[in-house]
Structures are given as C-alpha cells and as structure tokens.
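haha ok so turns out i had the wrong file open the whole time. this is the CORRECT one, sorry everyone. sequence first:
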Amino acid sequence: MLGKNSFLRLPVALILLLSFPVSAANWPEFRGPSGNGNAATARLPVTWSETKHVRWKLALPGQGWSTPVAWDGQLWMTAAEDQGRTLFALCVGSDGKLRQRVKIFSVKKPGPINRLNSHASPSPVIEAGRVYVHFGTNGTACLDTANGRVLWLRRDVNLDHQEGPGSSPILFGDRLIFHCDGRDHQFVTALDKATGKTAWQVKRSIDLAKIPTHARKAFSTPLIVKSGGMAILVSPAAQGCYAYDPRSGRELWHLRFKGFSAVPRPVASNGLVYVITDFARPELWAVRADGRGDVTGSHVAWKAMQQMPATPSPAIAGGLIYTVTDKGVACCLDAVTGKLQWRHRLGGNFCSSPITSADRVYFFDRQGATTVMQQGRQAKVLGVNRLDGGLMASPAVGGDALYLRTRTHLYRVERD
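then structure:
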C-alpha cells in the first residue's frame, strides 16, 4: 500500500454525494440511494436462516443478477429466459407477490456471457412512477410502474461486451446515464429520461489504438459526486477513469492506469473518490475529484495494491472502507490514509457487493452465506447466515428489511 501524494493535500471542502430525495424505505439504484452501499438507519437482523427471520420467499422466473430496486412498496428487477433470447422486467410487491412480468425485448442471437455473468445483470433505476431497465447492447427501456406499460425503448446504442452486459444506469436530473465500454466502442451515453432520445454522448478520450481489443472493455457503473459546488460524473473505464459534467457530457479530467474489465462501482467520501482499476490485478486508488485535464500525476492520494476486489464494489461508512475479494478476503482500510486496519478470510467466493447498516457490515457470497461483521478498526464476526441457492446479485434494503436475490428466489429478511 503506497501513498503517492500526502493526504494532507486534500481540499478543505469535502466531496459530498448528491443525495436522492427518497425515504429510508426506498433503494432506487444499484448500491442504494447514496451509491455507497450504505443503509445507515436500517435495523437489519444479524442472524437468519431458511426458517428464521424470513418474512417471505418467492420463486423467480428466469435468471438474472440485477439488484432489486425498491420504491413505495414495489421491487423491480430484470431477468432473462431461453439463454438470453427473452428479456423481461419483474415487479414484486412488498408482500412477496409477483405483481408484474413485462416482456421487454426478444433477442435473435444473444451474445456470449462470462460464466459468472447473466443476460440480465445491469440493475434497474427507479423513481416515482417510472422504472428504467437496461440490458446493455440489447436495449434500454422506461416503464410505468403502475401498470408496466413500456413508455419508450432504445435498441440502437450498441457495443461488443464480449462477456455480456454489466454496467448499470443511473439518474441525474432529467438524464438517464450509462456506460458503453466494449471491445469495439467506448463511450458514455445520456438519454432524456422522458423520451429516451439521446441528450449527449461522449467518446472516451484516452487513445486505445495500441491496446488489445479485449483490454478495452469495462463493466463499472458511474457515480455522481459534488466538488466545489459542481456535480461530477465519476466514470471508471478500461485503462483509466474519467470525470464529466453530467449535464453536458463535457470531460473535466481523466486518470490513466493499466487495467480493464473492472466491475466495482466507485464510492466517495472524505474529499476522495475510490476507484478499482483492473479485474486481473485490481488496485484501489483514492483520487481527488477537483482536478482538470490529466490528473494521473497530481491527484492520486494513495493506492491499495494487495487483495482488492475485481467484482464486488467497496462499501464505506464511519471513515472506513470495507472490501471483499472475489476469493473471500475481507479488508478494512482507513478512508483518508489508506492504512490497512484489518484483513479477515471469510471463505467462499464473492460477486455480490457488501453493504453497511447501523454499526455492521454485511458480506454475501456465491454459495448463499452472509457474514455479518462489526464495523470498526478490529475484525469481529457477529454471525454467518446461510440460504439455499447462491447470492450473485447485490442486496437491496427497504426500511428494516433486507432483500436478497439468490439464483432462484427473492427473500425478504427482517426481524420479527
């Protein structure tokens, strides 16, 4: 772990996440309302099983790893059938009943997917009355949440994922924004959320001409932060990370690194944005977001270069960053200095991203186990809970309920 630039150079004004005007009962996008995986006020259980603290369990049609999004008693997610030839959206009520199953797209020749991916991995994003679903190159659509009616759809924003889709869309004002980082094309698109028409589209500026095509793709999700009173779209890609004005798509800065195919969404706190650089050899870089132009040599505060995640996103709370590697090693870092606080082997394999709640952090593995640990600078396991099926999708929180999507079912886990 190296500190390239002293953390004492951080600006006085901290970077703050732009908050959504949502209640604690809502989880509007991948990683929740803050984008940091934080459900600070939720009173989630520490222990559960198939027979304890499960309010309901619903068998889901199809297959998909998208995180459920929650708004006013509805849970929306996506799924695929017939090896990706049929793509649809599902709406489940907070009572555990399947309310809507809406076919969105038919795909004649689905592209290949990684063995750990699905054809419905990008998570929806939801707001009052509207849910937006995204299937990468196979299409994007907006639905009326009251009746499932498709309000608009797009099928012309195309790229070669090679491994299947992974980046989730986000909302900013009247824009629906998503990454398009394929082997063939690399750009960011913003659609008018009311009509689906293109508001802006910007190509990645780092020259990839000498980079092999397989090393040009990425699967991360952007994050909105605020720096100096200005909203910034932080946008990890292959071979670098970018910041844009989300209103216009104008590039503000970029950061160069050697890496590609990274999945984790960045998090932000303490005047820094935290970005995973690579899939094969992932590093966590802490970057000041107030720069302009090429900030590679000037705005990297520190780097964590060992046992960082390739797939699960970090979580951050109380000045600490929590990560888990794909092979089950959890770490806690000081968010300001990058100093390692503890490292603990959980076991299992991980794709799902951890969340924090109250004074706890929750880690979800592919075998169906959730390890609950105490937040803090010492490692303390509070419980290990197992459900049937594996946890590939990241969780959602609504009120004091934890929603877990396994390979086959959706669970509502809640205290009695």
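The two ends are 43 Å apart (CA to CA).
again sry for the mixup
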